[in-house]
Write a structure and sequence with these properties.
Blueprint (H helix, E strand, L loop, with lengths): L1 H22 L10 H25 L7 H33 L9 H19 L6 E5 L11 E5 L2 H42 L20 H57 L5 H11 L3 H14 L1 H14 L3
Antiparallel strand pairs: 1-2
């Protein structure tokens, strides 16, 4: 029941993100280009994960069709790798946008090429789950009961190498993502606190311009200039706060990705070596850990809602228009 509720929340949240970002939030400079793509991947990840988990729970690990097992496993791995790579690409895009080591940020052609390369890498990483995945039967005490079957690598050695490689790749991807994002946070904090410290305060010793015959409009011009300058500084300060908040939002997304990906990968490596437990607390612990990657596909829409003001505003407009809120 819990994973069904989680699946519904993930499907609903990612569908709303797709709708809002493709129809209501206009991305004029391309800084949010990968967000709807990530939402689409997470939507597919929610569907494949929940479907596989429900089949295993309700059918007692029984797969009547081998290709159903392979298709679900391939979809889960593909969505997981692609989601992780997209988070890395978003960190790279923020790094290029904020730190500007190479000048201008990604053009539309470079963004499309980056996504194509990302998809090819994810597809290549998920392909081994097709030919090597098999269903393994286990004996049961009741002779009339259907023997349960689980979806695993046919060769334990291949399973250890595959999941071990994925685990190593995940660690490298996490390190690379943080190496890109730490300079972004430092740069934004430095710029934010520098402007905050040097923001000009009203002075009590300002020169007072008096209107006289020689300069009847000096006071009027000076007041207008001060008003324009004040509005410009307020706009810059708001923009800096917004940029800082968006960068913190992506940092939270990265942290959730780290927490949600490592436990299932480590669990897969351990079970490939020692086998899957079928009773007691070890079975419950295994089921919790192996399903933890579902958190990564669910959490992003709610992180957007919490940090991104424009997303909340457009979502409220959408709800008001539909008479849901």
């Amino acid at each position: 029941v819990i994973q069904l509720i989680a699946g519904v929340l993930g499907i609903l949240g990612n569908s709303i993100v797709l709708l809002v970002y493709t129809h209501y939030i206009h991305d004029t400079n391309g800084t949010r280009y990968f967000i709807p793509i990530l939402a689409l991947v997470d939507l597919a990840g929610c569907i494949s994960n929940v479907t596989k988990f429900q089949l295993e729970d309700t059918m007692r690990y029984f797969y009547a069709n081998l290709w159903l097992c392979r298709a679900l496993q391939f979809s889960m791995v593909l969505c997981g790798i692609l989601s992780a790579l997209l988070i890395f690409v978003i960190a790279l895009q923020r790094y290029l946008l904020i730190c500007r080591p190479l000048g201008p940020q990604m053009t539309i052609k470079r963004r499309r090429l980056t996504f194509l390369i990302t998809f090819v890498l994810a597809f290549g990483g998920a392909v081994p789950s097709i030919p090597f995945i098999e269903t393994q039967l286990y004996e049961v005490e009741n002779a009339t009961a259907t023997a349960p079957a689980i979806c695993v690598f046919g060769s334990p050695i291949i399973g250890i190498l595959y999941y071990g490689g994925l685990c190593l790749w995940t660690i490298i991807n996490i390190i690379g993502t943080f190496c890109l994002y730490i300079p972004v946070i430092k740069r934004i904090n430095k710029r934010f606190y520098f402007k905050k410290r040097n923001f000009p305060k009203p002075s009590t010793t300002e020169t007072v311009f008096k209107e006289n015959e020689q300069s009847p409009s000096v006071h009027h011009i000076t007041a207008a200039e001060k008003e324009i300058s004040s509005k410009t500084k307020a706009t810059d300060s708001t923009r800096e706060k917004h940029t800082r908040k968006i960068s913190i939002m992506f940092l939270v997304i990265i942290l959730v990705y780290v927490v949600s990906f490592l436990p299932p990968l480590v669990t897969s490596v351990v079970t490939a070596i020692y086998g899957i437990p079928y009773e007691g607390y070890r079975l419950n612990f295994y089921l919790i850990c192996i399903r933890f990657n579902l958190l990564n596909h669910i959490s992003n829409p709610y992180i957007y809602w919490f940090f991104y003001t424009n997303f909340r505003r457009e979502l409220h407009k959408l709800c008001s228009f539909a008479h849901f809120c």
